[in-house]
């Protein structure tokens, strides 16, 4: 193996929050490096593959800060805590401008006043450390070794406290963490969701078997410490897989779901359905999307990739009717219940692939005035987009958590007679490299 030390300057930050350096015309991406910084980098060549590793930062950027989180160097859950929040915002703004700026001017990113402890959903994996003590936290990046994490800077504090209690109770209840290699043990993961507006808490215990000795006493002990826990679910996952949740769910305490309030509407959230992880910024995002749609009151709106129906139900008061489509069965069930519970009668939810559904709508020549679309990171697909332009709505509002696929899809829409009129980045995920962006689109 050939190794060489080089001094290089970081020329930018990529969408994963890694510093970009260019060596002999080839780009390398290094964690924990900021644009403008000089660094010593080790280049190694092994079997024709060249890799670069950060050895030392020689000249620090004025945007560099000491990460508040003690686990930052190992965890990987956040990627840019070493960058000041202003620096993060500038990086995200520029990233969106570079990707989408050619479509129209990009508004200033809407940032958080307090960019900490914003996540309402947390996931913790249970294991043993080398001393056979029970630990809980997340997998170290690119490994299956769990790093113990007691407090996370971006997660809800209450959820962290509950995880700590669960860890403490394991000893007295002789509950063993699951071992992926031997397939022995009981508790694999814990998922916690908290309604910030209602303070209701869901605890999902992902376990390897239905047999839960001392279950009732366990529930009592957990609830005694945390009376805000309103529901506890056992999720059985005995497969050899890195997927967290198994198929079977047993509600062992409470209703099996929690509720939260967004933009004045009450939502029911179950264990498996998607719910935005930053409720404070979700309201900011939705309000911007609604503003871009400029509803007059007589529109038919399609809420595509609707999750538990949040956007559609919120806009239902402002329009004639709403059609929602979503692939996840549990989310659609929640959406239908949410409409009933809020006594909303002009919204219809369908459980289907958004592309499939769009093809059907286009073939039926259905009239849709506004399409609000919020696809997952992979973006939309050709089936959806080609039927969307056939359906020919006056306005499209495209919400995305991945500006790269959003740019690709926007290019398609522009090719078929649409133009972007407003682009608004919203910081939904401070300290991570993730960027959320909403684009207002109009027929030309
Ligand atoms: N608009 C919602 C959900 C956005 S997340 C909100 O703001 O909360 C994206 C959603 O798309 C998820 O609920 C996911 O289950 C759904 N989804 C993923 N692929 C899909 C597809 N092919 N068709 C329809 N929905 C899909």
Automatic annotation (TrEMBL):
EC number(s) on file: 2.1.1.190
Top-rank taxon: Bacteria
Descriptive protein name: 23S rRNA (Uracil(1939)-C(5))-methyltransferase RlmD
Catalytic residues in the record: 401
Gene Ontology BP annotations: rRNA base methylation
Binding locations of S-adenosyl-L-methionine: 276, 305, 326, 374
Catalytic EC class: transferase
Keywords for the protein's UniProt record, in alphabetical order: Methyltransferase, S-adenosyl-L-methionine, Transferase
NCBIfam families assigned: rumA (TIGR00479)
Family: Belongs to the class I-like SAM-binding methyltransferase superfamily. RNA M5U methyltransferase family.
Source organism phylogeny: Bacteria, Bacillati, Bacillota, Tissierellia, Tissierellales
InterPro entries (alphabetical): MeTrfase_TrmA_AS, MeTrfase_TrmA_CS, NA-bd_OB-fold, SAM-dependent_MTases_sf, U5_MeTrfase_fam
Xref: SUPFAM superfamilies: S-adenosyl-L-methionine-dependent methyltransferases
Molecular-function GO term, any one: rRNA (uridine-C5-)-methyltransferase activity
